[in-house]
Amino acid sequence: MAASELYTKCARVWIPDAEEVWKSAELIKDYKNGDASLQLMLEDGTNIEHKLDPKTKNLPYLRNPDILVGENDLTALSYLHEPAVLHNLKVRFIDSKLIYTYCGIVLVAINPYETLPIYGTDIINAYSGQNMGDMDPHIFAVAEEAYKQMARDERNQSIIVSGESGAGKTVSAKYAMRYFATVSGSASEANVEEKVLASNPIMEAIGNAKTTRNDNSSRFGKYIEIGFDTRYRIIGANMRTYLLEKSRVVFQADEERNYHIFYQLCASSHLPEFKTLKLSSANDFLYTRQGRSPVIDGVDDTKELCTTRNAFTLLGINESYQMGLFQVLAAILHLGNVEIKDRDSDSSLIAPNNRHLTAFCELVGVTYQDMSQWLCHRKLKTATETYIKPLPRLQATNARDALSKHIYAKLFNWIVEHVNKALITSVKQHSFIGVLDIYGFETFEINSFEQFCINYANEKLQQQFNMHVFKLEQEEYMKEQIPWTLIDFYDNQPCINLIEAKMGILDLLDEECKMPKGSDDSWAQKLYNTHLKTCSLFEKPRMSNRAFIIQHFADKVEYQCEGFLEKNKDTVNEEQINVLKASKKFDLLVELFHDEEKATSPTGQVPGTGGRTRLSIKPDKSRETSSREHKKTVGCQFRNSLQMLMDTLNATTPHYVRCIKPNDFKMAFSFDPKRAVQQLRACGVLETIRISAAGFPSRWTYQEFFSRYRVLMKQKDVLPDKKLTCRNVLEKLVQDQDKYQFGKTKIFFRAGQVAYLEKLRADKLRAACIRIQKTIRCWLARKKYLRKRCAAITIQRFTRGYQARCLAKFMRRTQAATVIQKYQRMYVERKRYRQKQAAALAMQTILRAYMARQKYQALLREHKAVIIQKHVRGWLARCWYKRCLRSIVYLQCCIRRMKARRELKKLKIEARSVEHFKKLNKGMENKIMQLQRKIDEQNKENRTISERLNGLETSYSAESERMRGELGRLRGVEEEARNKANQVTSLLEELERLRRELSSTQQEKKTIEDWAQTYRDEMEKMVSELKDQNGLLKTEKDDLNRLIQEQSQQMTEKMTRAIAEETQQLETELNDERSRYQNLLSEHLRLEEKYDDLKEEMALSSNVSKPGHRRTDSTHSSNESEYTYNSEYAELEEGSRAAEDVTRGIDTSLTLKLQKRLTELEQEKQSLRNELENKEEQFQRARARDDAEFKKARGAELEYESLKRQELESENKKLKHDLAEMRKSLLGDAATGAGAPGSPAYKVLLEQLNASCEELEVRKEEVLILRSQLVSQKEAMHHKDEKETMTEPSVFVEDVSKLKDADELKQAYIGLKDTNRSPRFMRKPLEVNDLLSRLRSAAPDFHKLNEDGELWLVNQGLKETIRLLEHQLQTQRRTYDSEVEALRGELQNVKEENNRQQQLLAQNLQLPPEARIEASLQHEITRLTNENLELMAEDPTASREARVIILRRMVDLMEQLEKQDRTIRKLKKQLKVYSKRIGEMGAGQTEGQTSPGQMVDEPIHPVNIPRREKDFQGMLEYKKEDELKLVKNLILELKPRGVAVNLIPGLPAYILFMCLRHADYVNDDQKVRTLLTSTINSIKKILKKRGDDFETVSFWLANTCRFLHCLKQYSGDEAFMKHNTTRQNEHCLSNFDLAEYRQVISDLAIQIYQQLIKCMENILQPMIVSGMLEHETIQGVSGVKPTGLRKRTSSIADEGTYTLDSILRQLSAFHSTMCQHGTDPELIKQVVKQQFYIIGAVTLNNLLLRKDMCSWSKGMQIRYNVSQLEEWLRDKGLMTCGAKETLEPLIQAAQLLQVKKKTDEDAEAICSMCQALTTAQIVKVLNLYTPVNEFEERVSVAFIRTIQTRLRDRCESPQLLMDTKMIYPVTFPFNPSSLALETIQIPGSLNLGFLTRV
Asked: Angle formed by the axes of helices 1635-1665 and 1565-1585, to 10°?
């Protein structure tokens, strides 16, 4: 591939930089062949021109694609070069906070200078058993790989940890050893893994010190071999040390310290035991104050010394030895303070009574004179004489320091030797893993002998590393059948030869040391003469003749020759050593120098340590010759020990850990590129990269290549054979076939080819994206256009409609306005008109009214005038009329008189004539008639006129009267007016007076009004003020009311929250306590299994076959509870000797842990008891106040009841005492037939029975009298007058049916109750229905009644009583016989057991106390846990309910006392009848000759006892000898599959309970005990045998729970009986209370549940990671990234790969199996919840530890998988079981991978969304987030900091991983069965024919 194809525009490259070493840049112009420079743009936007080297024309390094940045393995990078490695490490360290990175076979560890939570036990468990490439890089992954290869290949392993000071070598080695100790465990009770870890603080104290680069720098190298046995458990360890820096004892540079142990002693000098050391502050001693930095921040030296001392103790170094070591160390400090003064120029002296030298001599036990003498003098020996030469002060000081260094080196060796002795084991070592913690390549400004040896060792290690890498590469190529071409790599053998070969640097140094007058200068000249011209790696500095330069593999190093000879000789004044050896008071000092006269062996191999000076090498063991020349130099010893180390490493499989120091300032997560690249070059990482890059560094499987680059293939290129497809496609894509090779399973690529393929893939994806974008944008644009067009049309339509509506509206408005105007104008005009009209009308009205009034007034005046005129005129007229009338009448009278006279004259004349009379008479008749008529008319008119006249007279009289009244009134008025006129004067005077008074009154009124106004203003002001105050008070009142209401509401809410929190806390504590209890049960089960395994091992090791069954150790119980017993049919064949050996092997630490746990439980129990007592005391005080009146009312009754109870208790005690004497007599003489009549036991029994009979006779008479009275009262009410004999049963039935009062019937027939009951277990009273049924089913023989009918009823009652007593007698006899027979058998067994126990007793007394107290300790733990659970279950706050409960209990107690009284009476009756029957039997029957069945069948009494046919009672009877067969067929040999499919669920539990019911029915406590114990032991045995079979464990979990429910359902407790039918209540247990066994069975169920969870976890564990994370459920979403040497598990589903469907199928199989077995639904829910928790926890833990899984596409896969799990829950109806909630952390982690992660709003959304994740988990996921494609973006560091800031206030555990071993506490809710026991049929397939249904 041409460079022009890669160096194109936008390609990114690396260019050198002085500050950052390498800087990134981007090409802004394509490169063409022949160009002399590149046009680049830096990341800050600066354009530069990068000139190429005209000679080499080498182009700059290309950058890897962004998706490859941050890879776990550096070899996965397409471009393998130094800038790529440096950048990848920087990104992982700074951005992702990842300190571990793979580089092929090397683990690169960067020191974070910060404590990280990635080394806990949960992390160890997560890495245990995992492939190295499947998890993120970690020191645990390397340790797991070494451990796995050791077990798989059976080859020893080595972990080589190297790096410069401060890089973290010691910590890495420590964590590796911790991993081995945690994963493998110990093979013995000595806890070797703890001892191995305990050696670390010791070696750090004596071998580590603070330097400028590291606060805890190891100043020596060590190689620890951790030994393993055949089962790969730690059995021991061995340590070898190299190059102790002795010079640090006497000298420290600025800001450095001496070894930690000195400062720990000085800091603890105030302790009493250290007073004798005469120590003080570290600043007071020369050897500890030179660095001027005696304190390390964050380190407490006093606590560190305590840790060191504890480690000494754990490794077996007792207190006396420890104090001896501390004395030597204190002596060294005092020796450093010894001041040596000049005596003259050639001699020196020490002042007398130097206190430090005195202290030194006292501590080491030497004389002051000798020590001061040889500190200032030296002995010289010649052939003939010995001289004592004084030393100058400088030489004496050097000799003092040499002695100090020598003593410390000896002390160091002694400690290492004793640590090795403590770690050694007698067990044969099968294999080992070595951990090498050694210094890295060093170069300083001044390099001396120490740096020379260190760099020499690193040259050897680098050579071994290069060879190993080369070998692995060769093996890989040969395995894949790739043509092998020689890879050129750097070989540092010439440099090694320069140092160690003949005439090499070390050889010349040793030769110069042997010369009498050898010096550093002469040695340097020899080096120049020998190597300067012959070796290109050796150079001479230009400006110095006392130095030389060596070209090491890492860099050139200049060494100063000064001091080389002295340090190589390592001399010390022998006389000083002799003085120390002569110490008689200090044995430890002598022991340190006991090998001083010995020389090294010819081989030079040293078991302990290497060289000494800064190099301290342990002296050799061989005897020294008389010649001093044979003593080996430090260089020679170091070379030999290094060669031995290399031989060891070459014999093992090495694993490399390279520690990098990121900066020199110990700043957390700060990366200095310069320092990092120096160390990368020095530690060989870049060499590994170079070797990999020289071959084929990138390797893909065919499947991975096909999945990754499927986008580069056309459809026609895809063939069924993927291997062939890859070949064809690759040949088209890459023309140069040398760039790749096809292996058997992989494709190998040259460096850069993967980047080229990634570029092609990115281009193809980019083109596809562009096409997709083009199409989508076209679609979006067209859709947008169509939307716009549609919107425009819609807008137009709506606009036109709007305009039309506006026009219509305008028209309507115009028309409406016209109408409105019309009507408005009309209204205005009409209004104006109406106003005018109204005005006119008003005016007219007024005018007309005025005119009318005027007219009316005128008319009135006229009318009145007319009236006046009328009356006046009338009066005048009448007056005239009267005058005229009188005148007329007078005139008429006169005329008529005249005419009459004249007529009279005529008449008189005529009368005188007859004719005249005749003429006159002719018209007279007519005239008379006319006159008559006229008279009538005149009369009528007269009457009318008279009436009118009368009316007028009346009106006139009235008017006259009125007028007279008016006249009188007017006269009165006139009179009054005259009077008023007289009063006017007085009134005027009064008026004047009143006016004056009015004026004065007005003035007073004005004054009063002014005062009133003032007062009113003041009052108004006051009222306003009062109103204001009132308003303020109201406001304040409202505020106070609101505040009170708010406070009340807050208090209510607070109390509610407090109650809720307390409730939640109590629930949590209950769950925690339940978890602790269940953990104790699981721990007990583990101990039982361990105990059984040990016994089996001991039995197998004994190789002694002992036929027959033997009893197990009686001290070993099958359960922790004190109520369980050993089964008599146990089939284990362990003897007493095996039991003794196993008991001795019990783990001491385990006992201590259990004792500690017991103490904690005791304290917790005591606190709970105290709290309970306080609550009870409060409740008692409250109850005392509330129940005072009740106590007064009940006082007399309670007193009576108490007296009655005391009497009953005394009688009960007396009966128990008699029964005890009887049993004692029977047991005492059981072997001699003591039960026969006439025997002492028989006499004692008869005496007791006779005494009881006398008292019972009196009771019987009282009862008969009471019955007679009650019956007579009842019969007197219903008895008829007739006294006929009752011969038909129906008559009696009718009479009995009349007894409707249940209380009277109970009282009348109280003696007919069931009395087969022991004093310990209460039996329920006989019900009324039972009495009626018994009475109605009485015998047909009825005798005649007397007159009252009393005798008959009494007689019938006595007969019924006799029948019951006879039946009970027979039952008691059977029980008695069986008990006697059982007692005899037990007596014989007890005798045999006693003999055997006496034999075992002597053996057991020799056992350790831990073995003897184990059982009692476990019993106590179980008891305390049960009590704690009971205390936690109580609710002391419900006082009111408690009072009601206590009152009910008091009532129940009274009822129980009554029942107990009646029971005692019945028992006395039984005893009496029993004594009579025994007397009747006579001496003809002896015990053992008559079977119980014969005794029952034998007619005892002539009374006929009728029996009623009964249904089956739901019991199964079996013989005692069939118990083994029952357990064997029903438990041990039962196949769960057949039972689950063909039979009813829980059938074995029902059968066992029915057998138990029969044992309870016959009152056989031994049978009950043995059956329960056998059942429990058998279930445990089958679970131990087949505990890995899920079906078996599930089957017995279901049956154990069903058996437990049966024990509850039929226990007789009211809480359980309310769920039963009447028939089921009749089947309740009657004799035994098995509540204690229910607890035992509940514990067994908990153990089975935990075993079930373990089974499921073992089955699901291999599926979870593959199915939930690795498998692509949605194909094509995830992309496969390039991988390095550490291959991860492929996500492509091959054959045998687990998928999500595998998990769902397995879950369905679990669920269906449990349903078939009849497991309780609530228990199934708990199991499913635990399953889902395991799935979620394991998945999340792997997600947090795998960087390759943290991507957007993987989040989608996880969410889809979780949705499938939820769908499974929904299908099974388990959505409410809480399983979904356990997946919440995983769901939120998947959401976190998919959400946007840029802005502050995104951060806020993440914080609110991820409530189930901890801060550490959220930050870890964000740090691990890795884009799979180039289109994804990484999470910025600033965003992660924002998340951390927002989550800072969270209170949560800092633990990173979820606890996969956590098991939710299980509960067994009561689930009664509706199945009737009597309907259960036993199938023949169970082979239980010996069971009989009862």
From this structure: 10
